[in-house]
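Researcher: Here's a chain I'd like modeled. Treat it as a single chain, no partners, no ligands.
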Amino acid sequence: MFVFELRKHAARFGALLLMTCAAVAAAQPLPRVTVVDLLRTLIAAGVDVLYSSELVPSDLDAPDSVPQGDPMARVVAALTANHLALQHTGGRGYVVVRAVASPTPPVAAGAAAAPVIGSAPRESTLDEVSVFASRYEFTTGTAGEPIGFDDRDIDQMPGAQMDSVRALRAAPGLATNLSAQPYVRGSLRGDVLVEFDGIALADPFHFRSFQSVMSIFNPSTVNRADVFTGGFPVKYGTRSGGVIDLSPRSVESGYEYGVGASLLSYELETVGRSESRPIEWLLVARVSSDSSVLQRLLSEFGEPQFSDVVGRIKWSIDPASSLKLGWLVLDDQVNLSSNSREEQASARSRDLNTWLRWDWTPTAAIQSHTSLAMGHSERNDSGNLYLPGLAIGSLLAERSFSEISLQSEWTYMPSAALSWNFGGEFTRENAELVFLRQEMLGDSIAAFFGRPPDATISSNQSPRSSTWGLFSSAHRRWQAFEAEVGVRVDGQTYHGFGVRSQMSPRINVRYDLSDRWHVYGSWGQFTQAQRVDEYRAEANQTTPDPAHRAVHLIAGVTLESPQSTTWRVEAYRHHWSSLGPYLDNALGPISILPQLEPDRVLVAPADADAAGIEISAQRSFSHGVSAWGTYTYSKVTDDVNGREVLRSWDQTHSANLGIAWTRRRTSVSAFLAWHSGWPQTPVAVVPATAAAPAYFTVGARNSGRWDSYFSSDLRLSTSLPLRSGELSLWIDATNLTNRSNYCCVDLNPINPTAGMPAMPAVNWPPRVINVGFSWRVRRPD
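Model: Modeled as a single isolated chain. Structure tokens:
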């Protein structure tokens, strides 16, 4: 009944929204042109332009007086009107800075020399922006990056209204069907480093016991996102798979405040910068509203609830230094049960992260970032499983984790072509891990999965560790060649287990064959020590694993055409020569009690490999239309007992296609995702005989495949100006066609008198529709 009502209201809202979109489009026929649009046109013409999203926000309009014709002249005019300027850095390079002198027009792109256009005060010195293999920077549209997402583009991506991290699935190399926490080029989800405001976060996701279906970050919190799927710089340590680096939202001047509501949550937000006082701030708070959207994502009956707060205050002490105080608060709880009440689960998570960061730029050539961060996380899981003949058990798991870390990073830039980066970090961690499981498995099912019939475990651990890291790198750019060479040394002291250390050399290179053709490559070693909260308590782990060791080898080529289309082809191979065991559910990842399922297995590979080739493209058309697409051919395997076994998230072929149309205040975007079915462990039922009841038989793990996965997502939005502020209305739909994408097998109880036991297939989430609005007011200071 509820689904019927939801569809009815969604249909009404959609009709109203479409009529509103048409009315707005008809009343305002001229396309909106922003300064970012002009900068991207100049970049497509072969000029290297670096700019900060704080100086040039995505919604900074270009004045109507900007002339037509030469892209450089248009950019200079638009920047001048906004009190900005271009500063020449040599060759084809320019940087957008605050204007402190009357700008002088630069020479045309490609000329031998060009004067400085304006000059920058010391506080406007920009962070170094380098080109790395497998880096996708979702803000600037830098050459060689196939997808250019700033905060406006993230907001347009279907599904991102609930979670900004979901917008990153457009980058090649990321695999996810449900979780907001992606697999990056075959690595485990926990192998990916997530940073916000330069602070590493252990696990910033809601409902971690249920596939981590959403992160703490909605579009109101994020200004840009950088995704490294391999070959990342040495300043990023502790993880071996990839990096998601998120920057907080900010505004150039004035302030905003707003409220919003949807079928998912109620929201309150404010962001601003005071002109009379050296203060900036960001505060976004959410609390769950109706549970229908989360129920459909989790595909179970229950009442999931969540809340989170993201905040940051920046105080500019003087033009050379500033202090930032930030905090993240996460809370969620859920009580779920399966359709037949055979499984019941309860979970609660609470997280608090706080940090104090000092940014200091004593000279135009030196800048530093020093931070002190503290985090505390608590997670409790409990439940019961009743599958007669297969498994009967109960669970109580409690996990508490605290850490305090100190980090300092320094950059010295003696010239625009040369920079040195070095720094270090120190962290203390402690955890309290309690895992109590009482469970009996059926003899046949235990034998198939290599588990003892009595799977009872009682574990109580209190691991402690101290970790440190030192890193240094040199970046040099010649006229057509660019290289960065770096090394990182990490060490750990696990209390009671001695000292360990690892060294990680890395190199990234790029060569510009012409203004349009670029080739690049990357080689590096990446290590990942086990955090104390990652102990496998359900396997009664008492000794820390050796550090993961991975080698990334990457080569790629990009082509930029005069029609503003960017193509990229990249081949990679990641090899893990050392990695710890991990737990996996052989019959599928969707379960409300994965720790109690009879198919829970411990995978202990000797090594692992991931290899593939990625093709991606992005094109901006006239009239506010843009499109992007990716195709990936890949394979990821574990070496288990001398045999190559596909990892459960391997997808041989993967393709994404997105398109967005924006006209004034109305936008429509669609995203199509397709990939080969993930590996499947075959399971069948052996009929009962006069001598024996029916039972399940299981084949080799991941020796089959599910059918291909396909999802079509759509987002419609429009903004209506009000006397006070702006009202935005939107509809967000995922899996719009309601396709049944099978992923898992659900084993039903074996009843000897009931004939053949059933084993129904389970789907990834069905169609999910979220409808909402937001009201924002922007004021000058």
